[in-house]
Amino acid sequence: MQKILMIGATSAIAEAVARRYAARGATLFLVARNTARLSVIGADLAVRGAAQVHEYALDINDLAGHAGMIEQAWTSLGRPDVVLVAHGTLPDQAACEASVEVFLSEFSTNGGATMALLGPIANRLDEAGAGTLAVITSVAGDRGRQSNYAYGAAKAATSAFLSGLRQRLHKRGVAVVDIRPGFVDTPMTAHLRKGPLWASPDQVAKRIVGGIGRGTPVLYAPGFWRLIMLVIRLLPQAVFNRISL
Q1: Does pLDDT of 214 surpass 90?
Q2: Class assignment of domain 3-240?
Q3: Is 220 an annotated catalytic residue?
Q4: pTM of the entire structure?
């Protein structure tokens, strides 16, 4: 029976992932700031087959609250087999350009707070010499693009942080999975026009659970985004400057 610590558990992707683990009879420790939504999700997962569901209210931007949450998670689960971090927002690029304060706040939410959380969790997994640490970043971090480079910069920083953790923790038998979704139809993207490249949260969740099980270092979800982002990364700068992405 797997033990899963899920941070940012009320996001659409995280909820879809949790449902898949619940169907396997896993024990889940869910962390999110929206307590009402957290309770609804917890009750649903119990019906879907979860062995136990623990709930913990925390805004990950509250850095002082990280230690207490981690301690409670380890107390409730023992040592989790999987830690999944699904924390973040989709900032308004124009607002980030207009205000340094807005940019720094969004960068902290989408990068700094996550990296601050990963450090102590990595230390615990390092000490145990087992487990998988998985973090949802984004394809936006692969190359800065004019439409969302504030968001992309935060995700790129997180991916670089994960790369270092992966190298460090590999020697201890701990897998680090960098999950890079493309376009996903969630409440966070409800205002955006949808097209053929868009996926549902459950499609992405299926790939995430499989990738975590395999310990895939960098997981694009859906998988075709690996090729798309390879092409975007390889575009010469002179060509890249003339297109709108």
Answers
A1: yes
A2: alpha beta
A3: no
A4: 0.94
